[in-house]
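Format notes (please read before filing issues)

Several people have asked whether sequences and structure tokens are stored in separate files. They are not. Every record keeps both together, in the order shown below: the sequence lines, then the token lines. Line labels are part of the format and must not be stripped during preprocessing.
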Amino acid sequence: MKYLSKLLPVFIAIGLWNCEPTEVGVVEDYKMQNPEALKDLADDILVDVRELAPQIYEVEYVRGAGGEADDAIQFITWDFGNGETSDQDKDTVYYINPGDYAITFNGYTYDGELSEEVATVNAEDTLWCAIGQRILLDDFDSDAAYAGEWVNKNRNDTRLFDDYHVDGDAPYQFPEDNNVLLIGKAGGWWTEVAYDFDNEVFDFSYDGMWRKVAMRFYIPSTFEVPEGNFDFNIPESYLNLKIGLNDGSGRQEIEREIKVSELDQWVDVEFDFTDSSFDQIDPTQVESIWVMFTHAWDNDRGAGRDGTGVIMVDDIELIQKVPGCLP
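Then the structure lines:
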């Protein structure tokens, strides 16, 4: 079986093998025992190297397509020619600096090591971005990275937001001298606030710049203010946190279940939109980030919408898409 990539020819008819594998983790058992057997296996291996964007490549060992060859291979490694290696079947490599690079696939069997240069890459430019770049959207102690405004999106069941608005005269501080977004809930299903960007849109599509929204949250087991007592009073299976991306016409959401063990402490969480279907919005035109949480009971289980609680949010960040570092 041979394979020709759509964008880059990749022939894996192995013509070379090494008697002494030197990759980390290769044990003595993988020294060459039967070199002729390697030739028979080599023709069946399927490898794909695909150009995602200039100087960004996805490599894949298509496990399961090679029949007996796959059965014989115990593990694999990649050498990307830029000082980076991988032992994953599928991975992404970024060629940050100009130069010529060889991508080498290695398959380790008990008959020896299959090793072949499967692609060459010519990088002409320096990629402008840092891989996995993070930008701080809002930490509530300084100006947000992008101009905008926090807006209460569900005024019928939200408490405390207006009295302790982060842009108001009395932002809530937790701990001392650390401003946070404070949202109190009493009744209703979901409490929703959003950061609406004034003049910016963000691209969360596959070819776009961004893939994740990160944040820290804190849910106190009890929170007393003059407006009322916001005791956490809902079983853990009904407590959820969402991040939503909005394009002005709809919203794409990712939900995260919160455990009782996560109360009364700061928890870091990331919401990854990389594999989202984006059937609700245009992912290239994200104009607001929504923060939503619920303490609502499930009517199907004999409960109502009378849950209460408070969530505090800090350090909301956008994380650059990988792949997606486009010039």
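For reference, the curators noted about this record: The helical segments are 35-42, 68-72. The chain has two helices and 21 strands.
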